[in-house]
Amino acid sequence: MSVAFRREGDDEHLEPKFEHPIPVGPNLVTARGLRQIKQRVVELQAEVAKLTDETALKIAKRDLRYWSTRQSTAELPPKPSGERVEFGTRVTFLLDGREKTLSIVGDDEADPASARVSFSAPVSRALMGMEPGDFGDFAGREDAIEILSIAVLPQS
């Protein structure tokens, strides 16, 4: 029989399990983000200690490796001045005539539904360094963004 028609077992047809990808670049975090990462590590350590199912244990250990790496590489940058858009600020701006407010945070605490976007997101990169009254380009359009106000995120 041809090797092409031989089947060794069901395991060879399972979807491979890969490590969680680590975002490229620095692991900037807010104080809130660092607390979230630490809490996730504690939760996963407790979960790993209790699990007996081999598959669930592998998944929990993989998650723990990711979050432990994120905790050990976390960088808490200096508090922003609030004079320009930086990591750790909340910015209100007009985009195509519509007012929007976003908080610029770390990759792991980003939650677009809660208006928290990663500092590496395209909109964040477009906003960085701008001051109230500045106009900026976005998505290939000139002066698509107008900065209205900037506030420093709470440190607690």
What does this structure look like?
Helix 1 (31-50) packs antiparallel against helix 2 (54-73). The protein is built from 3 helices and 7 strands. The mean pLDDT is 89. It has helices at 31-50, 54-73, 122-127, and strands at residues 27-28, 74-75, 89-95, 98-105, 116-118, 135-138, 141-152. The longest helix is centred in the first third of the chain and has 20 residues, at 31-50. Strand 3 and strand 4 form a beta hairpin. Strands 5-4-3-7-6 form a 5-stranded mixed sheet. Strands 1-2 form a two-stranded parallel ribbon. The protein is elongated. With 156 residues, it is α/β, with parallel strands linked by helices.
Q: How would you concisely characterize the structure shown here?
A:
With 156 residues, the protein is of the alpha/beta class.
Span of the ends, CA to CA:
67 Å
Rg measurement, Å: 21 Å
**Average pLDDT rating:** 89
- The tally of helices reads 3
What is the element string, with H for helices and E for strands? EHHEEEEHEE
How would you classify the helix and strand content by structural class? alpha/beta
Q: Care to count the β-strands?
A: 7
Strand content: 15-25%
Q: Strands of the biggest beta sheet: in what spatial order?
A: 5-4-3-7-6
Which regions contain 5 or more consecutive residues with pLDDT less than 50?
Answer: none
The main β sheet shows up as: 5 strands, mixed
Shape: elongated
The helix content is 25-40%
